[in-house]
Amino acid sequence: MQGFIINLNKVKDEDLIVTIISKNSLDTLYRFYGARHGVINLGFKIDYEKEGSAKSSIERLKDVIHIGYKWINNHEKLRLWQNFLRLFYKHLKDAHEIDDFYFNLLEDASQNWDKQSSKRVAVESYVKLLEYEGRLHTEMECFLCHNKIEGDISLIRAYLPTHKECTHTLQISQHGLKELYEHKSSLFLSNKEVDRLWHILLEGL
């Protein structure tokens, strides 16, 4: 089976507890340290097998093959990718079974990560996630004062809309935001606006 590594925890003797998003599950597996094992890292896509153990409630991760990205040697893109995937662990860590939406979302993002700005891919992917989970607020009403927003908008965590005067943060073009929400495209947002949306995203899914 295949999946994306969203968390690594070192345990005794450099063994690892590895959390992986696969098509239909969130797997937490034990990986023994050994010279014959290839290097794995946060954000890697791998092909792997699970093996039960009579000594532990955690299954063992085995037969790992790293499925590389074309951009894997671009350190900046890899850093952004790892920051993005780290968010999924915090968001999904208490789940056992998950829909294939999350795997497919990461699969699509990984394919587009070097075709346009990585931050734009992440922002567009996040909007798809918010919509899928029923948390995308498309009504232009301030989350803080509950009054209608005219003109440009400021956003806070989970892309909740507010007046600039209510949060004193960077304004986002309402036209660009509507295009993002309706068509999952950041084309009409400036790089500065995308940077702002990226930093909001880093606060948590």
From TrEMBL:
Matching Pfam families: RecO_N_2
Domain DNA replication/recombination mediator RecO N-terminal stretches: 1-72
Source domain of life: Bacteria
Protein name, as recorded: Recombination protein RecO
Taxonomic source organism: Sulfurimonas lithotrophica
